[in-house]
Amino acid sequence: MSSIIKWGASVAFALAALLPLRATSAEQIVVSNFGVAANGMPYAIAMEKGFFKEEGADVSGILSSAGGGTTVRNLMTGHLSYGEIDLAGTVAAIQQGADLKIISDNVLTVAEFVWAVKPDSAIKTVQDLKGKKIGYTNPRSTSQALDILLLEQAGLKPDDVELVKTGGFGEAVVALNLGLIDASAIADPVWSKNKSQFRVLVSANDVLPPLCNVIGVTTAEAAATKGGFIRAILRGRRKAVAFMSEHPDEAADIVAKAYNLDVEVAKSTIHNLVAPSKSGVPYWSAGNFDFTGMDRMIRAQKLVGALSGEVDWSKIVDTSFLADDLKPKK
Length: 330
Prior knowledge:
Layout: H1 2-25, E1 27-32, H2 41-49, H3 51-55, E2 59-65, H4 68-77, E3 83-86, H5 87-95, E4 100-107, E5 113-117, E6 133-136, H6 142-153, E7 162-165, H7 169-178, E8 183-187, H8 190-194, E9 199-203, H9 204-207, E10 214-219, H10 220-225, H11 227-246, H12 248-259, H13 263-274, E11 284-287, H14 291-303, H15 313-316
Parallel strand pairs: 1-2, 1-3, 6-7, 6-8
Antiparallel strand pairs: 3-10, 4-10, 4-11, 5-8, 5-9
Helix pairs in contact: 2-11, 2-12, 6-14, 11-12, 12-13
């Protein structure tokens, strides 16, 4: 009897010793502006539908952060294996010595952006912006770069208008209503939440070519040691992207809860972004790379001083974590 008790105690001790190991197998991922911006919506779907677990990734939670630099720091100081980050922030970090690899191209366009004016505004075309005040969020931001690209498309120069920093899209809504600015770039879901107050001057999808928006990133350490987890994350996100196209209303219900949005706002956002675009390029990608779109975004970021120097994709992109059908054709 005593030997059985000893054996049972040994088994219990062994199981107890394993529990911390099981717990530490779960890992957070970090996604820029998760819960705020449209880029991160597939992760809410993947968590709720269990796509990450189905693919073998035990994701304990999604860490949100305000943007490129913060997300890079969270990825590296937290010793995490996967992050979704804007392209410029990642390239800048790599140029400064961060040992990072770009492993997927997650959002291929800037379709979430529109330029809005008040309903009674005399501004009817982009050319009418000459001499007007146009809002953007912050210096060296994507919205500032897109303002300049929009002006280029219209044959205008940055000094033909007054670019005004608003500090955020919500603040741009207030500034428009107060007449402090004449037009502003506004991104979904903030746009869908406020669109009844304004008129669309032009949407990014109508005037701009595909520009890489955010990318999947890992560290060199994780690439060497967490390959299975990283591949599972990419597969789970890919499932979520497909689900959003096939079931936009159900996806909106999930996103509304995760983002604390009105369901109708979530529906408007998702339907806008899964709709076919003029370019034929989707907003949310399965992960495949559009290097031309990446080059365009690098140029746009150089226009606002967010980046400098040349970028050699062959040195900082690792396509080995993608499914075979998504890898660039040789």
